[in-house]
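Record 1 of the preview.
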Amino acid sequence: MEISSRRFLHERNADIRLPMASTTKILTALVVLGEENLDEIVIVPKEAEGTEGSSVYLKAGEEISVRDLLYGLMLRSGNDCAVTLALHHSGSVRRFADAMNQKAISVGAVNSCFRNPHGLPDEGHYTTARDLALIASAAMENDTFREIVSTKYYEPKAWKNKNKMLWDFEGALGVKTGFTVRAGRCLVSAAERNGMTLVSVVLNSPQMFERSEELLSNSFDKYRMTQICSSDVAYGGYRVLHSFVYPLAQHEAEKIRIETIPFESSGEIAGAMKIYLENRLLFSQNLFMM
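->
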């Protein structure tokens, strides 16, 4: 997916409901970043200590900032960080899962259900590759999230990011690895080249790094961000307020069609512009007199 347009550039089995392991934590971080003060100090609850699976080994009663918990969540995949954040935010894992589901729906991920903040096996905890791409794209538009997941080393805690895409793939920006026996190997990746930012999702993929690199490389080779209309250009005596840029393959540029539709009105809005790729409407906006 190209994140600014939310255009899917390649998909296979994109709508199959699957467990997603620790890629769940992308949504956990997105919920927390929308509502919490990163410098707030949290007291680790006893429920978080000893959470099974990957951990940063928090101790009950320990004081730690929301910021540190987020870095532990995303760089070290700390399940104890996930529980601590959930309880701090909502008071219970169940209520936090409700907040996760509300956030998922708000970004268009309507074919998912979240039961916990960490992704450990839980009946009814699932997503799809399409939904997870939408969630990750929304998260990557948050500057703090992008800074966290692109960090190779978090010096205050001497934590190294587990995501080797940051070292091995040109332009990589993060995002999150995941593994359980039930979910298999899962990886959400983001990368930027030539002004285009892509997110890829692979679920239950034994060669998750290699497959993600292939998906991203092929899409960077095939597509370019293309300006289709500009606020600096007149269109039949009219102007528009917004430029429109969209990822296009080379053969698609000739299939773009721009329609300008004048209105019989003396009001401020003089008409409408509609942009199509073949017969698919991509974008519309108002026209104004020059």
